[in-house]
Design the sequence.
């Protein structure tokens, strides 16, 4: 059974050997693009998910969507409403192609209070959507928050260390076994 992992730098294993990233640890296909938002991801969804022949897809986004750049004058890169709509479309498209979707919450960071508040708000959207759409959810945010983040994240305070990817993989492993 093929599982496609569709996401951003957390899925790509940015700053690490790709073989140490959580999808590789599970033997799943990684389709992660660093810096990507759900808006951008919808453009590649047909190629990377619909045409993949996969039985399942793990959808992992949010860190870039809720990020606020100075050039955006305090606005998030993708509004919460658009983030929600983009995730709904991904789930609906996956189901249309008979691919079972799962959603993943946003990885905790050490980026600061304001960023974490935004990430928590977007995480609540993911949790609500999973319930609303009856989609399996893997709450990596809750699982990892109770562990020493300085050991699970790289020095940038955002990306997962090799140890962080191992924990992440263990949280998601059950999806491949369902």
Sequence:
């Amino acid at each position: 059974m093929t599982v496609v992992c569709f996401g951003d730098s957390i899925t790509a294993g940015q700053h690490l050997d790709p073989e140490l990233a959580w999808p590789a640890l599970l033997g799943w296909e990684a389709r992660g693009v660093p810096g990507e938002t759900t808006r951008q991801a919808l453009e590649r969804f047909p190629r990377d998910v619909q045409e993949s022949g996969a039985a399942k897809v793990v959808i992992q986004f949010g860190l870039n969507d809720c990020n606020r750049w100075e050039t955006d004058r305090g606005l998030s890169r993708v509004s919460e409403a658009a983030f929600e709509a983009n995730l709904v479309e991904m789930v609906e498209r996956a189901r249309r192609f008979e691919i079972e979707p799962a959603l993943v919450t946003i990885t905790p960071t050490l980026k600061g209070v304001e960023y974490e508040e935004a990430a928590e708000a977007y995480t609540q959207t993911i949790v609500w959507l999973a319930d609303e759409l009856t989609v399996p959810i893997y709450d990596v945010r809750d699982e990892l928050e109770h562990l020493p983040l300085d050991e699970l994240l790289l020095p940038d305070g955002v990306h997962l260390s090799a140890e962080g990817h191992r924990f992440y993989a263990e949280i998601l492993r059950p999806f491949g076994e369902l």
Observations:
- The longest strand covers residues 3-7.
- The mean pLDDT is 94.
- The beta strands are 3-7, 29-32, 56-60, 100-104, 137-138.
